[in-house]
């Protein structure tokens, strides 16, 4: 009866916390011994948002922080020598169910926010990372007192995958929307005229504002991997701009206007990363001149390519 009542109270508290405390956040620490990069299954595989971090602190929701405190209390009580095996198993199952409730509940409670709010996306991802890193050593530290066969390991993969999916789905969705916006921009051949130029400038500024808004929220997350995701979002945008520039080269009258528009992009991209090292590592704009000249970029060798490069960089 005690374990059943405890279970009811804990799960009710978790549900209420998800509803009330999710937009409040705290800076939390990951357990040092388990704070290391995950190895890729295949060599050369792209790093995911869960695969880093040089920093031991990250921003998590107050809800996740409270959840882990409750889970620790349940595991500590279950491992106490005065607690019977039946009660101990019930307490462990309560801790497991609390994690499952969090994962399934967040997918529905903040479903709409996960589509458009980068801060919520960051918090959900960080919460999943925070909980899984704490869950990994939790049972081992208490194995002497816990009932045999107890484990939390099986809960780790779905929670990590959920957090990663949230970030990558958001990035892909908004990259697609930004590309659609860029596709409505007038051709480069027309931007010497005021009307098309103003339309192209407005379109580009809207896209860059959206990208800066996302990057600014993610800088607060405490994970360098967000810089990698922003870099992935930048790549197709830059590719679209350069491809369209090659397919419809601007006239001499439009050179100044085209340079101005690309300068907007370059200036905005330089502010998307916290440090110069991160920008150099993940920013697809850094080194674009060398990549273009050496043919690393997937554009055919042609006079138009060099002409377009001279327009972009005013060389």
From TrEMBL:
Region (Disordered): 29-57
One of the record's GO cellular component terms: RZZ complex
Residue ranges the record marks as coiled coil: none
Name recorded for this polypeptide: Centromere/kinetochore protein zw10 C-terminal domain-containing protein
InterPro entries named in the record: ZW10_C
Pfam families with a match to the protein in the record: ZW10_C (PF20666)
Lineage: Eukaryota, Sar, Stramenopiles, Oomycota, Saprolegniomycetes
GO terms, biological process: endoplasmic reticulum to Golgi vesicle-mediated transport; mitotic spindle assembly checkpoint signaling
Domain Centromere/kinetochore protein zw10 C-terminal: 59-178
């Amino acid at each position: 009866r005690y374990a059943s009542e405890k279970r009811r109270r804990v799960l009710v508290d978790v549900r209420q916390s998800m509803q009330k405390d999710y937009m409040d956040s705290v800076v939390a620490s990951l357990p040092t011994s388990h704070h290391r990069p995950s190895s890729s299954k295949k060599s050369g595989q792209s790093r995911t948002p869960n695969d880093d971090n040089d920093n031991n602190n990250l921003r998590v929701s107050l809800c996740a922080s409270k959840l882990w405190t409750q889970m620790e209390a349940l595991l500590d009580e279950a491992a106490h020598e005065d607690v019977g095996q039946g009660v101990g198993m019930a307490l462990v199952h309560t801790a497991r169910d609390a994690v499952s409730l969090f994962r399934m509940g967040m997918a529905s409670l903040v479903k709409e926010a996960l589509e458009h709010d980068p801060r919520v996306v960051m918090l959900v991802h960080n919460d999943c990372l925070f909980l899984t890193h704490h869950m990994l050593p939790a049972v081992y530290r208490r194995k002497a007192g816990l009932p045999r066969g107890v484990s939390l390991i099986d809960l780790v993969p779905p929670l990590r995958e959920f957090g990663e999916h949230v970030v990558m789905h958001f990035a892909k969705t908004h990259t697609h929307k930004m590309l659609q916006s860029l596709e409505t921009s007038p051709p480069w051949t027309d931007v010497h005229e005021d009307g098309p130029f103003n339309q192209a400038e407005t379109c580009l500024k809207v896209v860059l504002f959206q990208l800066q808004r996302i990057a600014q929220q993610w800088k607060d997350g405490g994970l360098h991997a967000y810089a990698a995701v922003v870099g992935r979002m930048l790549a197709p945008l830059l590719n679209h701009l350069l491809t369209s520039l090659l397919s419809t080269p601007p006239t001499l009258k439009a050179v100044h206007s085209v340079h101005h528009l690309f300068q907007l992009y370059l200036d905005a991209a330089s502010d998307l990363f916290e440090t110069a090292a991160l920008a150099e590592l993940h920013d697809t704009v850094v080194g674009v001149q060398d990549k273009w000249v050496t043919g690393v970029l997937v554009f055919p060798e042609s006079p138009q390519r060099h002409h377009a490069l001279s327009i972009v960089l005013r060389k």
